[in-house]
Amino acid sequence: MSSARQQEAITLLKAHSLSVTDGRTDILLLFISRKGALAHSDIEKKLGDRYDRVTIYRTLQAFVDKGLIHSIPSKDNSIRYALCKDDCASGHHHDHHIHFVCKTCDNTYCLDEVATPSVKLPKGYTVNQVEMVVSGVCQACQ
Amino acid sequence: MSSARQQEAITLLKAHSLSVTDGRTDILLLFISRKGALAHSDIEKKLGDRYDRVTIYRTLQAFVDKGLIHSIPSKDNSIRYALCKDDCASGHHHDHHIHFVCKTCDNTYCLDEVATPSVKLPKGYTVNQVEMVVSGVCQACQ
DNA sequence: GTAACTGCAAAATATTTGCATCCTT
DNA sequence: AAGGATGCAAATATTTTGCAGTTAC
Predict the structure, then answer these.
(1) Rounded to whole angstroms, how far apart are CA atoms B137 and B24?
(2) Which of chain D's bases lie under 7 Å from a protein CB?
């Protein structure tokens, strides 16, 4: 089971100055294998017997802080997280892609190939970050 | 204190088939007077001595259900709500505007004059709803 | 008068914090 | 060896549910 993915996870952790522990590796593996986004509760469902709920909270927070994953805004108080692309670094995220939430399978995907369109705001606003979440039906569920 | 705004609130409630009670009127007044969006906790801070927390939950839910307010997705597990425009009706919301979160004053505004740009998704996706949240610095905080 | 709204109590759920112990570097 | 990560306990916060009393229509 110490596979290529396992190696990938370890490399990613090191690259983001996170110490390599079983918990972090396992949680990161979830993100690597399953391409969709994960909420805290999803992770708890899958690993809750192996790791404490608190550890999952702290791990996700550490991952966000170090630019390994980013959070996706939601309307239902259950933030989902997804892997960042290479151009995210500690401190500043660059999620210039949109997110898609499928109403049928309830998965959330990063559509890396679709950039967030630029918006023109009224005079006086400074734009810092743009988040776009599209909901509908995904390819698999059509 | 029974002012024009009070009348506006009552009219709005009736127009959305919500019965007119003190609690609903007061909460709606908050949305009318303050143009920014409000989270549950904001409302509780302002009216928590007058109304039960549970009533606030239920009132917000009723407002959303009847198309009086809409929720704005967020990254921090604190959903904010804002008044809907006239073209929102019970059951189906039409928030085709973008939302702006100011990092300085932490207010959230609906920019009704800025429509959400259309996005082109890869083949196979059906788009149902588009949410756009822009963060930065607002006019007042520049 | 009836249906709907409200407050209170309580349950269920989610999140944070402190601390002692263990593990990574 | 030292600093950071983890688990456990517990505190805190958030959201939901049931029910009895009250109010709007």
Answers:
(1) 32
(2) 4-10, 14-18, 23-25
Strand B38-39 versus strand B69-72 pairing type: unpaired
Residues A60-107: tens digit of each pLDDT: 999 999 999 999 999 988 999 999 876 555 556 666 899 999 999 989
CB A64 within 8 A of CB A71: yes
- Tell me which residue in B111, B127, B132 faces A136 most closely, judged by beta carbons: B127
The number of beta carbons lying within 10 Å of the beta carbon of residue B2 is: 8
Q: Tell me, in Å, how far CA of A123 is from C1' of C15? A: 39
Q: Which amino acid is at B49?
A: D
Cβ neighbours for B111, distance < 8 A, ≥ 6 positions apart = A121, A122, B97, B98, B99, B100
Q: Do A73 and B75 touch (CB under 8 A)?
A: yes
CA-angle at A5, arms to A2 and A7, nearest 5°: 65
CA distances for B97 relative to A48, B111, B115, B121, angstroms: 40, 6, 4, 19
Residue nearest to nucleotide D8 (CA to C1'): A52
Query: pLDDT at residue B4 above 60?
Result: yes
Q: Which two tokens stand for residue A29?
A: 């593996």
What domains does chain A contain, in order, with CATH numbers? 3-136 (1.10.10.10)
Q: Are A67 and A91 in contact (CB under 8 A)?
A: yes
Nearest nt by C1' to A39 Cα: C14
